[in-house]
Design a protein that fits this description.
The structure is a single chain. The chain is an all-alpha fold. The chain has two domains: 91 residues, no CATH class; 73 residues. It is built from seven helices and no strands. Helix 5 runs antiparallel to helix 6, helix 5 runs parallel beside helix 7 and helix 6 runs antiparallel to helix 7. The protein is globular. The two termini are 28 Å apart. The structure holds iron/sulfur cluster. Iron/sulfur cluster binds next to loops.
Amino acid sequence: MAEIFQADCENCLGLCCIALRFNRADGFGHDKSAGDPCFYLDARHRCRIHDRREDLGYEGCIDFDCLGAGQRASASLSAEERTNPAAIAGVQTRLRILMAIQELRQALTEAGALDLAAPDHARRQTLLTQFAAFADDPKADLHESRVDPVLDSARALIRSWRDERQGAPSRS
Ligand code: SF4
């Protein structure tokens, strides 16, 4: 199960090094806007300072974990598109959506160890099935009109568990 959430940088196009914004204050060696490729990313989508990131002040890169979103977003591109910078740039939105999906999918998976009521387990399983269909099919339609309701349902369910544990009224 754990490999579902494991980043596979060998099969990713360095998307996190392009799509995400970062700055010095958060443990990166320079400021970068979302959508701008990091200047350490080489033409083969590899980090030119990978082994020296800590020394050069890029602890933020070391700590970052896409939870497997990067290779999934990259897999949506054809072999031809993988050499096309415009196509790679176009997949950034997909990366962000997949990051949100993978984060909630992991939380729901881990919740399987909780002592939940049967209806909650059923909701959890339904959401996991929906997330798997989105995340594990490279051609899945990830339009916000399809994905956002599922993300919202997962967040509400997780929040209700947290509220119950804290003794607060459930908002789901
Ligand atoms: S320093 Fe390396 S790992 Fe960090 S964003 Fe740049 S290319 Fe990616």
